[in-house]
Amino acid sequence: LRQCRLLIRNTGKAPDQPPEAMFQRFTKGNSSQSNLGLGLAIARKICDASGYHIQYRYTAPWHEVEVAFDCTQSDTAR
Length: 78
Hints:
Layout: E1 5-11, H1 39-50, E2 53-59, E3 62-68
Antiparallel strand pairs: 1-3, 2-3
């Protein structure tokens, strides 16, 4: 957690999908996974509704999801 940014990282296999596809519902990063592929789609909807920016990137062996917050806006203005 840094000022105006939240970065979540974990290690794993390289995704089978391009980064932007990872935000589509029911898209799994790796076809061998047993998850439903909803997590990043839900996170993007929350970020879009809140005026935040979310991005995913993979730099072997790290998966990274970063959320950037607008720190110029006060919480009461939302």
